[in-house]
Amino acid sequence: MKPLLEIRDAHVVRGGKEILIVDDLCLGVGEKVAVLGPNGSGKSTLIQLLTREVLPLYREEPPVRFKGEARAVRADVRKSLGVVSSTMQDEITVHLPVVEVVEGGCFGTLGLPFHVQSTPITRERAVAAMELLGVNELADRDIMTLSSGQARRVLIARALADDPETLVFDEPCSGLDPEGMHYVRAAMRRLAQVGKGIVLVTHYPEDIIPEIDRVILLQDGEVVADGAKLEMLSSEQMSQLFGVQLLSECRSVDGDEYFSHVSSY
Ligand code: ADP
Ligand code: MG
Questions:
Q1: Is the CB of 42 under 6 A from ligand 1?
Q2: Are 18 and 221 in contact (CB under 8 A)?
Q3: Beta bridge partners of 24
Q4: In Å, how far are 68, 134, 171, 207 from 34, measured between CA atoms?
Q5: Which ligand gives the minimal distance to the CA of 21?
Q6: pTM exceeds cut of 0.85
Q7: Does any ligand 1 atom lie closer than 6 A to the CB of residue 43?
Q8: What is each CA distance from 212 to 26, 158, 198, in whole angstroms?
Q9: Residue 27: pLDDT band by 50, 70, 90 thresholds?
């Protein structure tokens, strides 16, 4: 597997405090992986090391390489990664038709501002992405009028519009009702099944779709475990990670494994 991200001895400092320390972590192109950890454990910071929105402390030997490159340019990173976060929706503050929001994904913008020119090709890509996500019927709707679940799927279509090889999801299901979660998880599955790499950040084991086999556990800004899903999602690991007694469950439905955990209180 070709490397997507290689991190060696990276230290991220914010407000005078080390918020993320990664000794050695590699992700491959096309890999399907989940990063699980409590609030504040450094998950989003790890994603920002991948997207190069955050840089670690300087070292002569570069601590982060993107596809083998120590100085990858943002445009190449943007082309390779489609990013969806639960907070992106809050950034949309103007009335725009859904199709324009999705098409904006071809330009790295949220809609189609004056400086970008829609073309038949970008429009076609937007339509194809909406079809894959099952949101094509929303094409002409005002983005501001959608439910959170619909808007989240539209943002996934947007991330997909420029045909990235890897999709990065930062807590894609937070704030959604069970129907919204169902459709977002089903969308992640479909993308994994058509060969996209998946990097999923979450604190819900339920988000970990069957196609994901590797799970990285983050706690207090450090990778505390990294390995096969079944082992990482055990009751012992989950209880230790979240600091409360959790009972992990794995159910097999039609040959696919679904994870969840319960706690008594
Ligand atoms: P997660 O996504 O797992 O919830 P984050 O990566 O967002 O965690 O943040 C990790 C830690 O770094 C948190 O404790 C957060 O408060 C802290 N942090 C993030 N950004 C800053 C910043 N700009 N200044 C100070 N602390 C920060
Ligand atoms: Mg976060």
A1: yes
A2: yes
A3: 8
A4: 22, 24, 11, 9
A5: 1
A6: yes
A7: yes
A8: 16, 22, 8
A9: very high
